[in-house]
Design a protein that fits this description.
This protein has twelve helices and 20 strands. It is α/β, with parallel strands linked by helices and 420 residues long. The chain starts with a strand and ends with a strand.
Length: 420
């Protein structure tokens, strides 16, 4: 097992070029493929999740292994089902074979798709025979993964009758749905909310066009965490390639961190243009944080670690999707925070609460990452308050391949070792 021991820099003052947004990259790649054009999007993410989509679209092998990429599984399933590209098996890691996909498969079957389970019903792998689908009206639960909804929306313009998608129940991660619709419209689609719970996508081919991918606000969250946890009043990080007015749901990170004493300054506010964002301490933070992460669940790990180490009690709601991510993130957070001496409790698997309860920390805490990139990314900044060891740190390649290099660039020490 590989381990990294992380130590804090003497002073936090760095300029970092963030990775490109994998959320936008993956959507743009699917839409680009559906457009039939040859203008590949620019500034694509170089993370694992995007690489598996690039390889699948380029090679279209009989068996497509998307590894641990949940986005790729959902998006490629819809694409393969709705295009006449022959028969394919789509599969992934053991964890992926236990991540549910029945809601998406059922919706595609209603649209006339030819899909069979090649293993356990309700889960990958899938056997898909591609064909042009008619489309029409369907219903799907709004309180499951927004990736199912995005997968259906993106194939909507290619359906002969288009798609009218009615979302039932509570709708979670709405900003990710909006990001999908925005990206679709960038390529010429006619796709809009027609009511609070219904989206209409008209049949209309995508237009091939040059397209530049902005950098990743999710990746920015870990640098915000570092500024918040730094003991220096003049800590400052400059993040390149972000956009003001971004459609990325995790751009809300700048508002939430303002409550924890981190100020955001944009170098330029030209809409749709990448700029450098400077983050520094403001000197003011709330004594307690309550926040609903239903629209940005991927930020939860960042704020759990940050708040606890700052001594800010919290109640975080809207976390129901965390149990079906790369790991059960609620249980993983409870276990790993306990190693640092923080006693968290969950409420019905949908909320995480810390009321300030402490216990003895493990003498030499080593954080397990559970094949989950965000466990490594969120816990590494804890080194600003205490030495931290990260087990299996290579998981960051799923979304932020150069994270450890960027940490060293910012002055962090990383002692690399292998434990038998």
């Amino acid at each position: 097992m590989i381990q990294y021991q992380i130590s804090a820099p003497a002073r936090l003052d760095a300029t970092i070029k963030l990775p490109a947004s994998k959320s936008i990259s993956n959507r743009a790649l699917i839409i680009h493929a559906l457009s039939g054009g040859n203008l590949v999007p620019e500034n694509l993410s170089d993370c694992d999740d995007t690489e598996v989509i690039i390889n699948a679209l380029r090679d279209m092998p009989a068996e497509i292994n998307i590894k641990a990429a949940g986005t790729a599984m959902r998006f490629m399933t819809a694409l393969l089902a709705s295009t006449p590209c022959g028969e394919h098996i789509i599969t992934g890691t053991e964890r992926m074979k236990h991540r549910p996909i029945k809601v998406l498969v059922d919706a595609l079957l209603q649209l006339g798709a030819n899909i069979e389970y090649a293993g356990q019903e309700g889960f990958p792998p899938l056997r898909i025979n591609g064909a042009r689908l008619e489309g029409g009206q369907i219903e799907i639960a709004g309180n499951v993964s927004s990736q199912y909804i995005s997968a259906l929306l993106m194939i909507g313009p290619m359906l002969s009758k288009g798609l009218e998608l009615h979302l039932t129940g509570d709708i979670i991660s709405r900003p990710y749905i909006d990001l999908t619709l925005w990206t679709m419209r960038e390529f010429g689609a006619n796709a809009e909310w027609t009511s609070i719970d219904t989206i209409l996508v008209k049949p209309q081919s995508y237009a091939s066009r040059t397209y530049y991918i902005e950098n990743d606000w999710s990746a920015a969250s870990y640098w915000y965490e570092m500024v918040a946890l730094s003991l220096q009043d003049d800590a400052e990080v400059r993040l390149e390639g972000l956009m003001d007015g971004s459609k990325q749901g995790d751009s809300s990170v700048r508002y939430i961190f303002s409550l924890l004493g981190v100020k955001t300054v944009f170098g330029s506010k030209k809409p749709g243009k990448p700029t450098t964002v400077t983050i520094r301490k403001s000197g003011h933070r709330v004594p307690r944080l309550e926040y609903d992460f239903v629209n940005s669940p991927d930020l939860a790990q960042t704020f759990v670690v940050t708040c606890a180490l700052l001594g800010v009690p919290f109640r975080f709601t809207g976390l129901q999707t965390l149990k079906i991510k790369e790991t059960d993130r609620i249980e993983a957070l409870k276990r790993e925070m306990l190693k640092l001496g923080y006693v968290l409790r969950d409420v019905n698997g949908q909320e995480l609460v810390w009321d300030g309860e402490r216990t003895d920390a493990a003498p030499h805490p080593a954080i397990d990452t559970y094949d989950d990139h965000r466990m490594a990314l969120a816990f590494a900044p804890a080194a600003l308050r205490q030495p931290v060891v990260i087990n299996n740190p290579q998981v960051v390649t799923k979304s932020y391949p150069h994270f450890w290099n960027d940490l060293e660039k910012a002055g962090f020490g990383i002692a690399r070792q292998t434990e038998e």
